[in-house]
Design a protein that fits this description.
The chain is mainly alpha-helical. Helices cover 71% and strands 0% of the residues. α3 (51-72) crosses α4, α35 (630-651) runs parallel beside α37 and α37 runs parallel beside α39.
């Protein structure tokens, strides 16, 4: 409008009317896709600001009829977006009627319009299409809400016309869908408050005919038609009839309360009496009883509601009527062969309403039938098949479902029923929730005290406890769960006094369920967790007997672990953390990976600084307790203390908030000072010493400011293991600690050189290679600091070069790996190492024993040399006079002969026969480096001869031509 001011709103409306005609035309098309498109177009128009409401107001009646037509003309397979059509219809109604004035000067016009609009939807209440009926009911309800007027006032002008069309047509002569539509329309009118219909002979005749339809058998209703095709329609018709009979039951009460109505209908008092006597006393109630045994769940539901309405109006049923209604099910109960699923479901619904009419002794008969139907052969066969369509199992489930509906003294059947169901579940091999869990849960939930007493007396029977736990875990019996929680002291006594393994596992299983199902249980019953801790601390049985009970032991400790972790998630019990770590000392098949993950997430990664600080403070006092073994202390340090300090250092710079000098002094007192004595901790193993060294390394690396007063003892402690330990991993860990110490504190040169030499002397195949590499990488930056004032190469470089010649292939591989990882450290002293490298390449890659790793190492070291040459060349180019005066190797270039050796080695390495793995990993890297060396930016002064260049280029050409483009 703003960009095209010459176009008026009237002209736009003309365009919109043309579009609207197209939308409505699409809605009338046969294709559902086009109908949906037209409906979506109308929806877009309803959401168009300003112009949309005006367009709707001009065409509202057409839109109502068009959208109703979509619902009437649906295909047989209903699309998924039916609700969208109804929602668009409701939106159109809101826009066109939402602004009507029902209280001002325009109230008469608004009322007339509203009545006219209601007249469009009112006849559709009897539509054969259920979707149309539902949409009409929603629209009428919306109009009542928008206007604030009662539905009867809006519908009254149209009542006689619609009712006349229903009363004048015999229902039995119409198709089922039309019968259902008319019955549903009358039910809608009857259900209004006040009712829209009058209590007259036409309504009574219709109710009489409806009663006949509800009472008729399927064969009578269908006649010669196919039973299978018409069965679904018969069910819908029967449901509609019963709903109308139930809705009309309060009708006589309403009119009897109206004084004027009583006078007006004085001539039909006899008819009312007939209705009361005939409908409520006999036929309607009989229909309800009969329908309760229907195979259709829908019919049973509406019959149950109808019978409930009858009992609302009558405190007691006539004896003969009750006998007639109960006779079918009582006859079937006399013979187990005559039991049927619909009959048992009907009995259950009758018991819901008529509990006082039954004697509790019926439970004996039900139990007998349960045992007869639960034939062992049937159960064995059923355990291999789907239970959905298994009639025998369904009968058993329906039988069990009746017990919670029996009179209040039905708790006498508790033990036999539980035993029968437990035996049935066992024979069907159920280990979790079964079809019997829900009906048994209803029964137990009605008698929670007696039920828990029964199970507590049978803790030694795992099958009984399995049945109880499946009910609790499915949240089917809240009263039973509360009762079990109140018996926690009894369970604790059983755990402490009974040594039978089944009882212990049963109690632990129930504790785990209680902690999971009741979030506050762990906090409110800490004494129960203490009892579990006592059991945990009792330890494993003797080695000579553990093999026979290893499965039970593993199960027991898995349960206790779960209890502890759940308790820790709900309350910060630090003592449990120190207990959990002992699981790593047991040789059991327990998931320690899950425990490790939990400890990392719950402790080290916790955001609660106070919680983590308390753990560290607790560790100081816990560590000196002789009741705990050194292996357990080892794992506490590994999974609790060290991760806390490490994560804190990575997470925040405010490390003082977690530890302080007092904590360091405590560690100094209980760990570093005693361990400087060779005889300290005689029972400790090497794993314990490794974890202590690792903990100290973390402190030195990330918390050096707190260690000034104790650093001498730390260095003494580390150096004692460097010089005296026989275990190579302990020695390497001590070297790493020393390297971290040298990086954090000034240290005499002799210690740094000693550590450097010792690390290089360790054979390459011993210990943990990554640990030694980390120690060397950490120590490397400290080497330049240790240089003295002497001229020439530093002492550490000379020592390293000497080791290359003295220690053999193992040290050579270690030093080469170090050069690859620390190229800038060795750049100023490379003249010491390049000749050795050039002359040792054949040992790495050309001997029969050469591995793929050693050949890859040779390529890596050659790449480093090539990079050194480029760096030195650039240094000379930038400042030649200064480069000539340099005292180190910054301008040293590799001699021509050594270059030729290296090029020759690469050529031969690229041409030798390789396996497939070498071709995929080694050959591309070798050829890429060779291409750089002999290329225009490579070593152009190499005069090794045309045979090297031609051969190298030939190899490169052959290889790359074979690669896919």
């Amino acid at each position: 409008m703003n960009t095209m001011p010459s176009i008026t709103q009237q002209e736009i409306m003309l365009i919109l009317h043309q579009i609207a005609n197209r939308f409505t035309a699409l809605c009338l098309d046969d294709s559902w896709t086009r109908k949906s498109a037209g409906c979506n177009g109308i929806d877009i128009m309803t959401k168009t600001p300003d112009l949309g409401p005006k367009w709707i107001m001009d065409r509202e009646v057409d839109l109502y009829r068009t959208l109703l037509h979509i619902l009437k003309d649906l295909p047989s397979d209903l699309p998924r977006d039916i609700d969208d059509v109804v929602e668009v219809l409701m939106s159109v109604l809101r826009i066109s009627n939402g602004q009507l004035d029902f209280h001002g000067e325009g109230a008469p016009q608004a009322r007339n319009k509203l009545i006219h609009t209601v007249g469009i939807f009112f006849p559709e209440l009897q539509s054969p299409n259920p979707l149309v009926r539902q949409a009409s009911q929603k629209c009428i309800a919306l109009l009542v809400t928008l206007s604030g007027r009662p539905a009867v006032e809006l519908l009254m002008p149209h009542r006689d016309r619609m009712l006349m069309g229903i009363y004048t047509k015999p229902l039995r002569a119409l198709p089922f869908s039309k019968q259902i539509g008319m019955i549903e329309a009358i039910r809608f009118c009857v259900s209004l408050d006040p009712p829209l219909v009058e209590l007259n002979d036409e309504l009574l005749r219709l109710l009489h005919e409806t009663l006949a339809l509800a009472d008729a058998d399927d064969a009578q209703l269908l006649g010669p038609r196919n039973l299978r095709q018409g069965g679904l329609e018969v069910i819908k018709l029967r449901v509609a009839c019963i709903k109308l009979l139930t809705a009309s039951m309060p009708l006589t009460d309403f009119f009897s309360r109206q004084h004027q109505t009583r006078q007006r209908w004085a001539t039909v008092v006899c008819l009312i009496l007939i209705l009361l006597t005939y409908f409520l006393d006999h036929r309607v109630t009989s229909v309800y009883f009969k329908s309760l045994y229907s195979p259709s769940p829908e019919v049973k539901d509406v019959a149950h509601e109808g019978l409930r309405m009858v009992l609302t109006h009558q405190s007691r049923l006539p004896k003969e009527l009750l006998q007639t209604g109960l006779r079918p099910i009582l006859m079937n109960l006399a013979d187990p062969k005559r039991l049927s699923v619909p009959g048992l479901e009907g009995l259950a619904r009758l018991l819901e309403l008529l509990t006082n009419y039954f004697k509790v002794e019926i439970g004996h008969k039900l139990l007998d039938h349960f045992r007869i139907v639960a034939d062992p052969q049937l159960l064995q066969e059923s355990s291999k098949l789907s239970l959905v369509d298994n009639e025998g199992i369904t009968k058993l489930v329906r039988l069990a479902n009746i017990f919670h509906l029996l009179p209040s003294t039905a708790n006498v059947f508790l033990e036999p029923l539980v035993n029968a169901i437990v035996q049935t579940e066992t024979q069907m091999h159920f280990s979790t929730q079964s079809p019997f869990s829900e009906p048994l849960a209803r029964y137990l939930d009605r008698y929670p005290t007696e039920g828990i007493d029964l199970f507590l007396n049978n803790l030694q029977y795992p099958r009984q406890i399995r049945t109880l736990r499946s009910i609790l875990q499915a949240n089917l019996a809240p009263n039973l769960l509360r009762e079990l929680s109140s018996r926690t002291p009894v369970l604790v006594d059983c755990l402490r006094t009974m040594n039978e393994r089944n009882v212990v596992i049963a109690v632990l299983s129930l504790f785990r369920d209680l902690g999971t199902l009741i979030p506050t249980w762990n906090a409110q019953n800490s004494y129960a967790i203490d009892a579990v801790v006592e059991l945990w601390q009792a330890g494993l049985p003797p080695p000579e007997t553990i093999a026979s009970v290893i499965t039970d032991i593993t199960h027991k400790y898995s349960l206790m672990l779960t209890i502890f972790t759940k308790a820790l998630q709900q309350s910060p019990r630090i003592d449990l953390l120190f207990e959990i770590t002992s699981i790593f000392t047991f040789n059991l098949g327990v998931d320690v990976i899950g425990v490790t993950k939990f400890l990392y997430e719950h402790v080290a990664l916790s955001e609660d600084a106070i919680f983590r600080r308390n753990i560290l403070m607790r560790f100081v006092t816990w560590f000196i307790d002789p009741a705990y073994s050194f292996p357990q202390k080892t794992y506490v340090i590994r999974y609790l203390i060290t991760p806390i300090l490490l994560v804190q250092a990575k997470r925040s710079k405010k490390i003082v908030s977690l530890i302080d000098l007092d904590f360091i002094n405590q560690l100094h007192r209980i760990i570093w000072q005693p361990m400087n004595d060779v005889s300290a901790f005689p029972d400790a193993d090497d794993l314990f010493r490794i974890e202590i060294l690792h903990l100290t390394t973390v402190l030195v690396q990330f918390y050096p400011d707190l260690l000034d007063e104790v650093r001498k003892d730390i260095m003494k402690y580390a150096w004692s293991y460097v010089t005296s330990s026989d275990d190579v991993i302990v020695k390497q860990t001590a070297y790493l600690l020393a390297a971290r110490f040298f990086a954090a504190f000034p240290t005499p040169q002799k210690f740094i050189l000693h550590a450097w030499t010792g690390l290089l002397r360790i054979p390459h195949s011993e210990g943990r290679i990554p640990l030694r590499q980390e120690a060397l990488a950490t120590l490397a930056p400290s080497l330049p600091k240790s240089e003295g004032s002497e001229l020439g190469h530093p002492l550490w470089a000379k020592t390293t070069r000497r080791l290359l010649a003295e220690e053999g292939l193992g040290s050579m591989v270690t030093i080469y790996h170090l050069i690859v990882k620390q190229p800038q450290l060795f750049f100023p002293v490379r003249s010491l190492f390049v000749p050795h490298i050039a002359n040792s390449l054949n040992k790495l890659g050309m001997t029969p024993s050469s591995s793929l790793d050693s050949r890859l190492l040779s390529i890596d070291i050659l790449q480093v040399i090539f990079d050194w040459e480029e760096q030195a060349t650039q240094t000379v180019k930038r400042n030649p006079p200064l480069a000539q005066r340099s005292q180190d190797d910054s301008t040293w270039l590799t001699p021509l002969g050594l270059r030729e050796n290296m090029v020759s080695y690469l050529v031969r390495l690229s041409t030798v026969t390789h396996d497939q793995q070498a071709k995929n990993n080694l050959l591309p890297r070798a050829l890429s480096l060779l291409q750089l060396i002999v290329g225009p930016n490579g070593w152009t002064d190499v005069t090794v001869g045309l045979r090297f260049f031609s051969r190298a280029l030939e190899v490169i050409k052959i290889y790359w031509l074979q690669q896919p483009i």
